[in-house]
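Demo today. Your pick:
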Amino acid sequence: MSNLDKKKENRYSFSENTFYFFREMCVREPLAALGFLAAVLAGVLLPFLSAGLPRLVLKGLEEEWALPLFLDRLLFLAAALALAGILRTGSSVYMETRTCVILDIYNLHIMEKRLSVDYEVLENEGFHNEAYAAYDSLYRHHSEVGNGYAIWKDFLVAAFSTAIYGTILLTQSLGILILVLLPALTAAFLQKKARAYDKKMRQLAQDANRKMDYVARLTCDFKAGKDIRLFDLSGWLLGILKKERRVSEGYVKRWENAYLAANCVDSALNFVRDGCAYVFLIVRIVRGEMAVSDFVWYMAMVAGAQQACAQLLSVGERVGRLNLDYGRIRRFLDGWEGTVFSGKHKFPEEEEAERQQAAEITFRHVSFTYPKSPAVTLKDVSFTIRPGEKIALVGLNGAGKTTLVKLLCGLYHPTQGEILVNGKNVKEYDKEAYYRMLSAVFQNVKLLPLSIAQNVASAPESGMERSNPDKTGSDRSAINKAGAEQRRMDSDRVRQCLKLAGLWEKVESLPLRERTSLERRVCPQAVDLSGGEKQKLWMARAFYKEAPILVLDEPTAALDPLAEQEVYEKYREMSAGRTCVFISHRLSSTSFCDRIFFMEKGQITEVGSHSLLLERGGAYAGLYEIQSQYYRREEGKVWEA
């Protein structure tokens, strides 16, 4: 079992999530924290001030206060009421404006997590399940995270008010306090059971929600649009969407019915509590044991206690949901640490020059098996690539070439054995430091909706500044690591790399040349490149980085043989002084490499130069002969045409 399968499941108690919420609020939104305290204070005081107004009037009449004293006390209480009302309204309105900020902050954290985890984590199904659960907690239609301020404000107001009401009622009778608290505790127990059922049903509904989300995104996928229309898949996709929606809604109804049952029991208990409390107070006023002004006051206290308890239970349900949502988000953010890089080795100034030089690569008895796969992909692979050497990995599909390259790039960790670069185990490096040593081009090319120059340099153009995710700057680390040096684009080098990759002629024909934007779905004035042009652009990016290790995984798969030969000639010029590893199915393109590693069934079976392997007449020579015959037949057909 891999380390990912053994990942410790992080669980968070109610108190831990509560502390997390208030810590985040105080650190990220200090003004909102002050507004929150003001809203809670005003929410607690207002009902008592309102209940004290009629009591003050009746008490003044009973004790025959002088008019100036009566007016002074009345005006003071009215002013306090007005101030508390303004404070509650103003602070509540301000906190509502911060709702979107809260969601954006957590969304930024989730995006940072998905962008920063080790590549091997991305293939783990559990990671994607928890990522979807985190997004579901943020953006589903009944999510509570965005209303966190209001929920906790209402909960604290209800809790403090209940405590104060209970203390006041206790001065009259313990029995009346029990009448108020007993139904509340019973309802709280039922709400806890409902929340446990809620959690269970949400986990069952998560799979259906994820399928609905996938189908919804597929309908907007430009690449899938052709197949959907040509093969008339729209009805089938809508059928899947409707089916999964019914499944999801079924689970939602089940957990909502659990809350409904708890609330119905609570309403019945409230009716019994109200009747007993009012009978008790009415008997005391009839017996003359209580003044009229005190009767009005305690009647208000009973009503207030009932309302506070009802609000405490109602908001307590939402606090429970909020706790579940925070737990799901924190489990994702705090978990899923990869195993590829565990060291902190960086490059001090004395090693920086060494880092720029061609690297030595050593595989020692490396084996690798993909998670949950019964087959071994790489079996006891050992070799050493000398600094500045050019190596070609060749073999049939499934031989393990791409997997070997991914291990070298630090995207996976060997199941057995070790990989050393410049004599140090890859795990000893800091992740960012190791990635700076590598420049790679893989088969699947993904372009960013930026200019051609920005895609090549992976940096903003001169004069451009990176956006700041929030005004306080507390989340800048979500995009740029603290202390990272701001990279700037070298425009001359961008053009040079585009020429070396064979793309400059195309770029020069565009009105804005290298400043032309890509991806028309984002920018209407952008251009779309062909598959071969995209690969050339990605090769230009690999050239621009000037890393000591250059890896090319079928970078010319979309090019014809003549264009491929031209690119490899330029690649040979550009790769001088670097350690180079590239994968190609066209064996003729490997002739300029220093050595060729021929792979079969996860092992390196032949090693040597192109001419040496042909002389040996092994599997490499046989595959080369088959490809040569194919190209000769193709050329004959063209000539006859």
Residues 1-10, 463-486, 634-641 have pLDDT under 50 and may be disordered. Strands lie at 361-368, 378-385, 390-395, 416-421, 424-425, 438-441, 549-553, 579-583, 595-600, 603-608.
